[in-house]
What we know:
81 residues, 88% helix
Amino acid sequence: MSATFLIARDELRLMARNRVAVIAFALLVLLTLTAVASAWSHQRHTEELRARHQSAAEQAFDAPTGIPTASFTMVTSSIGR
């Protein structure tokens, strides 16, 4: 075995005897899982919000404007003269 592995194994064995280290490790894992869940939830919410705004923008773009096409072409054709 390499010296690094022996030192790491010995440190882990000593840390396992220390209650504070075990509790700190458990809290670290818990906080990491909480952060991952929070980030995932925020990302999902952001994607839903983006999709909702995209849908609203597409509906607004596709909605009729109320301007008759004939008068619009008349205005544009008179500008070209």
